[in-house]
Specification:
Blueprint (H helix, E strand, L loop, with lengths): L1 E6 L11 H11 L5 E9 L7 E3 L2 E7 L2 E3 L2 E3 L3 H11 L2 E6 L2 H10 L5 E5 L10 H14 L2 E4 L2 H6 L1 H4 L5 E3 L12 H11 L4 E4 L8 H11 L3 E4 L16 E5 L3 H10 L2 E4 L10 H8 L4 E4 L5 H4 L6 E4 L4 H13 L1 H18 L2 H20 L1
Parallel strand pairs: 1-2, 1-7, 2-4, 7-8, 8-9, 9-10, 11-12, 11-14, 12-13, 14-15, 15-16
Antiparallel strand pairs: 3-4, 5-6
Length: about 375
């Protein structure tokens, strides 16, 4: 039995987006491959005993401070030392400065993997300081993983470690077909010829550009997610833009089944991969995304699985939406291509298998 310790700042039940979803997929997906997974994470209240989540375990230490997206905990050090003793591999998920400190302080004797999910974008003022910690950490771990070749090639941080970077794309499980009554309920509300965005309404998602493109084109747009637009300079929303609110996984699949295309206007490198694009590709939908030098253009290939446009450009976004609306046969071909690319590169079992091979490799090389 191989024991893996994942280390990241948030996890279930507080957060189940992005990196926590990747950790959960790995932990559950490797259970039947002889792997026992543990997750060390921070929470509002620490717990003395681990909590079972599916077939793996989460260990919560109290979050003492949260500043500039860097959660800190004094009690993490003792719990980390305890868990690291029985771990065969420690898997760090970045960016999170405390993970770097934990490794340099108490984790260097163990085989280690660092998945570099994203550069620091919003808090760039702290990057020169953090770099003094990050680069020694990356030199010490046994393996570095990027989730796409696009990100590895454009990250200034990874450029200094490129010879040691492996590419393992994020993978997700197969979709479950929505129930007919769910589809009919959403069809009655929005029809079946809308452009769909699904995701958290964060500063880097480009929603002002999508809403402006909808205003210019008059095409129907459905935005699935919280309607809190406080981070955006949006004064009025046209009638052809509809907010569904937060949706369940089942309702998300129903909306994906009904939409004519998926639109993903993220305009900053904070959007490091775009799991929502994988979900659209899995549903055989053509996609529109922006070229920001990250994994979004690894998932969505321009002219093959959808259209890729310049960021922050409502005119280009509206033009891409109009083209897909007026060329349904080409859009359908792109959706079929997206599905084939998903099957080839982005299945959860393939991601799990790749990491398992990497775990065995770092165990062997660390001993040497």
């Amino acid at each position: 039995m191989m024991k893996i310790l994942h280390v990241y700042k948030v996890y279930l039940p507080e957060n189940f987006t992005g990196i926590p979803r990747v950790i959960h997929t790995l932990a559950e997906g490797l259970t039947h491959k002889g792997v026992e997974s543990h997750v060390l994470t921070l929470a509002a209240k620490g717990r003395s005993e681990p909590e079972a989540i599916g077939s793996h375990y989460a260990h919560y230490v109290r979050r003492d401070l949260h500043i500039a997206s860097a959660s800190l905990s004094a009690s993490a050090f003792g719990r980390f030392r305890q868990l690291a003793k029985s771990a065969d591999v420690i898997h760090y998920h970045l960016p999170w400065p405390l993970a770097d400190i934990l490794h340099l302080a108490a984790g260097r004797k163990k085989p280690s993997v660092a998945t570099y999910h994203s550069d620091i974008v919003k808090q760039r003022l702290v990057l020169p300081i953090y770099s003094r910690l990050l680069h020694p950490f990356l030199r010490k771990v046994d393996a570095i993983v990027a989730t796409s070749s696009n990100y590895a090639e454009t990250s200034e941080i990874l450029a200094k470690h490129r010879s040691r970077v492996s590419i393992i794309p994020i993978g997700i499980g197969e979709r479950e077909e929505p129930e007919p009554n769910q589809k009919e309920r959403w069809r009655a509300r929005f029809g079946d010829s809308f452009f769909l965005f699904v995701g958290s309404l964060r500063y880097y998602k480009g929603l002002p550009f999508l809403i402006e493109a909808a205003r210019r084109t008059g095409l129907p747009v459905v935005i699935a997610g919280s309607r809190d637009l406080a981070d955006f300079d949006i004064h009025d929303v046209p009638e052809n833009v509809h907010f569904s609110g937060e949706v369940s996984e089942e309702d998300k699949e129903a909306l994906l089944s009904l939409c004519q295309a998926f639109v993903f206007p993220s305009h900053l490198r904070s959007e490091a991969f775009g799991v929502a694009l994988l979900e659209a590709a899995r549903a055989a939908k053509p996609m529109i995304s922006c070229e920001i030098g990250t994994g979004t253009s690894f998932v969505n290939i321009a002219g093959e699985t959808g259209l890729v446009i310049a960021p922050r450009d409502p005119e280009a976004l509206g033009g891409a939406m109009t083209w897909l609306a007026h060329n349904p046969q080409e859009a359908q071909k792109m959706g079929a291509n997206a599905r084939r690319r998903f099957e080839r590169l982005f299945r959860a079992e393939d991601m799990c298998a790749a990491y398992l091979r990497l775990y065995h490799r770092v165990v062997a090389t660390h001993r040497q």
